[in-house]
Structure formats: structure tokens, C-alpha cells
Amino acid sequence: MNFECDVLIIGGGPSGLLTGSLISKKGFKTIILEEHGEIGRPEQCTGLVSWRIGEIPERIVLNTVKTARFCLGKHYFEVSSRKKMLVINRFEYDKYLAENAIENMVVIKTGEKAIGIKNGRVITNRGNTYQGRIIVGADGPNSITARLSGLKQPGNLLFALQCVAKGLFEEDVVEIRFEKEFSEDGFAWIVPMDKNRARVGLVTKGNPLPRLTTFLKKLNLEVVDRPVGDSIRFGLMCKTVAFNTILVGDAACQIKPFSFGGLVYGKICSNIAG
User: Fold this and answer.
1) Could you tell me the pTM of the whole model?
2) Which of 61, 183, 203, 253 has the greatest CB tally within 10 Å of its CB?
């Protein structure tokens, strides 16, 4: 089937959903293509955000933390903030953004993966064709939109992997570790969801699974679910716009240079793009 719209957004993560809501509010017909069958799946984020994320429903907040502990071997220092950081349920957050987008008349097509762009038309894995006057690439660090539009992403890649683990945790302390045993050119983290559960993970060069396994064994933690992860692309892009195409969020490497987090920067850049 053929579909036409004013703005076609490839990627139904936070950056794509926020951009879609903002554009649709202005009266432009907007369609979002999301490759997965459900918005918010798989849940690949630590879900640790600052107050800059803006107002979100209380049901989405799992925990609040006020202290970050930075560790190198036996040495550490702590930084506390008057404004607490939030540990959120990323699946519920994405659902919330999707509900807002739908309320603003955005059409969301799940299970539709862009596999080609030709003459301004996007072809999907289901054989459908979508044409938008403007195309927004919000399809992450390995953006097909960037590749097919000639927008070169940096070659800098790290790999992140995390899981939910059981144990005893300090509810209001996030721990960041810099030991090379667990991470090369990156770091490991413990982000408490409550006193008995935490998101435990790391970002590193190469295969992160052996390092995560070592990290979990050293902490003597019980894994609750299967580890999930993704690649992280970082560095400056010379261009994020080409002809009728613009990149936002992880696709444009709009992430924090220290933590590699993308939610807040993605929101800022979505506001600019929208």
C-alpha cells in the first residue's frame, strides 16, 4: 500500500515520538514508523534521568536518587544534588509519549521497518511505501535513514549491556565504576530500582557479555531477566540535514559526552526539530 503525509518519522523512540507530537500539533499530517511490534520494547535504557526531562506521571517513576558515587578500585567520591534524579520505567515512559502523540493525531505504524529510500519514498519490510515531504530519522545509532540519505555517522562505537538483578542496594545512590576489569574505555553502573532490585550494566569496547558476567559474579547478584543492550555511537556529525531529511536523537549522535545518555538531549533536539 502507498501512504502519503507531510512528515514521515522513522523510529518510534522518545525522540521520534516527541518530534512527531510537536509537528502534528502544528497541523501537519505525521506518520511514525516503528520497526518493533510494540512501542518501548525492548527496554534498553538505564532509565536514569535528571529533572530536565520535564514533568512525567508519577506512575512512571520507580525510584529517586540524590547521590552519585564514582568508584575506581577501593577509592571513590560522591556527588549529591538538591534536585533528585529519577529512575523511570522506560517502557511506560515510551508508552506515555506514544499516547500523547496519538492524542495529537500522529499515526504510529508498528512492525514497519524502513529498508530503502528511493525518490523520497520509504519502502518497508512489509512492502508498503510511505512518502513524506519531510523525513525525520529517529532510528538510533545505526540509522538506515542516515546511511541512505548520505549523512555520515561517526565510526566511534561502544557497546552497552545491562540486566535487572536482585540484591541489597542503597536506594538513593547510583554507583558508577571505572575498573578496566569490567569496562574498557567506558564504565559500569548500578542503578537502584528499589532496595532489592537494580539495573546493573556496563558500556565497553567489544563484546560486553563476558565483562557483565564478571561484574555480576563479583557483586554476587542474582540476574532477574535476560541482559539487553545496544550500540552507542558518539562523536560530532558534520551534517544532520540533507535535502528533505533531518536526523534527531541517537541517529544524530545527540547524546551526553560523559554518560552517553540520550533522553534529555534527544528531547532538546526534538523541540528544535519540531
Assistant:
1) 0.90
2) 203
